[in-house]
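Observation: inputs received (chain + flavin-adenine dinucleotide).
Thought: call the complex predictor directly.
Action: predict_structure
Action Input:
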Amino acid sequence: MVVLGAGVMGAWTAHWLRRHGLDVTIVDQYSPASSLATSGDETRVTRSAHGADEVYPRWQRTSQAQWRLLEEEAHASLLVPTGVLWFAHREDGFEAESLATLTRLGIPAQRLETDEMDRHWPQIAGDGITWALYEPEAGVLMSRRAMLALVDRFLRDGGRLERARVVSPDGTDGAGGRLARLTTQGGSELRADAFVLAAGPWLAGLLPSVLDGQLSVTRQELVYFATPPGDDRFDGGSVPTWADYDAAYYGLPSIEGRGFKVAPDWPGPIVEPDRLERRLSDERVAAARRLLSARFPALADQPVSEGRVCQYESTPDTHFIIDRHPEWDNVWVVGGGSGHGFKHGPVIGEYVAAQVLGDLPMIERIDPGDGRFRLGPREAKLGLRTSGLAPSD
Ligand SMILES: Cc1cc2nc3c(=O)[nH]c(=O)nc-3n(C[C@H](O)[C@H](O)[C@H](O)COP(=O)(O)OP(=O)(O)OC[C@H]3O[C@@H](n4cnc5c(N)ncnc54)[C@H](O)[C@@H]3O)c2cc1C
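Observation:
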């Protein structure tokens, strides 16, 4: 069994397949959690809220338990329970839908009025906010560290990891409805009974005819601001992770001293992940600073302490791609994280593994039942940007 991609989707798939006793090799062109991979940043948010949708909240809760288990096994801090606070600008938007859904599912979530928010977190300016949705059990995954722990566990379980760049498979690599091999840039062959292609932002380049127009890879910037000296009001534990759906921003408190993270969340230009120059733009830094002035005024003049430039690989409707290859029965195509895939890695991997193993009860237990992950043309979701957050401009 060959899994292409040591990102969150490939590595969790490889984990589950190995735990089911398969002989599994992960092949990646870079080392796991590299700065170029979409899973490579220090931190990722894990939250249940997803409007009226019930599938992603359930997946998030199941996945969170798996991240906890990995944390225990790795003896490392992988999940920081900061809570997640959503700023609502109206009574009938994403936050209200999410609160109704989470309440129905029994997932802890509460409505906070602005005076309560002010009492809990006076460092947040509430101007323009009508109320807030608070998810007390949501938080932050230490994504880079978690990826290293995950791959390490996979290797200790007897899995293998190889470094190679795989080239696009073509008709000469497969026949009779099955793929026989992947070929590396150096000309070596990787033969297996089955293949999972979880190539993140490289997926469309790997399978151009299968994914034509279905994935857009855009430049995204994350700006970290230094917190003021002697001031712990912006650390995890003092202030929650936050999101402003209507304004298309979200951010994280400073964790382990890395700085207060602000993410202007509208899609940047289309990019190639191997060629992307990863330096912050003045424009996004200025946008992040404008957000701080309005919402976290004590940080407005703080210096940028570091930045991350990453890429979204987004489908038109922001649902992931998890499907069998249209020509080769023994190949699964997995990706399209669309800015919200990291947290769901454990369930995505289990779902892919169930399909590879042909485990129907497991497939049925996880399957959303609406075909949302199928390959093929999809309708763009109006008003929704890549991470599920709406644009401010
Ligand atoms: C700025 C930003 C913020 C985000 N915030 C969140 C968040 O808060 N919460 C959340 O849940 N999600 C978030 N996401 C989304 C999440 O990070 C992604 O959905 C997820 O990491 C994608 O994982 P992946 O395994 O599909 O891809 P990747 O992590 O990119 O892994 C793909 C791997 O495949 C390898 N590969 C590709 N092509 C080849 C080849 N030809 N040969 C060999 N190897 C190859 C690559 O080297 C790479 O290691 C965010 C994404 C970004 C960019």
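Thought: report the result.
Final Answer: The two ends are 46 Å apart (CA to CA). The pocket of flavin-adenine dinucleotide is lined by residues 4-10, 27-30, 34, 37-39, 44-45, 165-166, 198-202, 206, 220, 222, 310-312, 335, 337, 339-343 (CB under 6 Å).
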